[in-house]
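Structure ticket #2291
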Amino acid sequence: MNNHASGTFDVKLSPQPATGDWGLGRFSLDKQFHGDLAATSAGEMLSAMTGVEGSAAYVAVERVSGTLHGRRGAFTLQHTGVMARGEQQLTIVVVPDSGADELAGLTGRMTIRVDGDGHFYDFVYELDESNG
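Resolution: structure written out below.
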């Protein structure tokens, strides 16, 4: 059974020292989720820029702690994003077996949208309580 959570989030990216001069960036990541997921997260992000406008990539891992539809716990999200000359592909998934407390057994996929009105998330998930 798929469940759906949605809402907004605020994000703060803080640059961190990176090695090399070939377009690699490293950032600490702090988020505050609002809506069906009321939580905070902390993580790390690596990005790679190219010399072609609109082409880049990033990976990130963040630990989310709070409540999801009233269930308290934590889980880890893994991001993989690629942009090829403006065409974007983004995958955000729950790391298998990363759910804790009332979110043990959580699996799912998140999408995000950023526009002039802010940052938005949609999270389709399943909670297999027999795994907890």
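Closing remark: The chain is about 0% helix and 75% strand.
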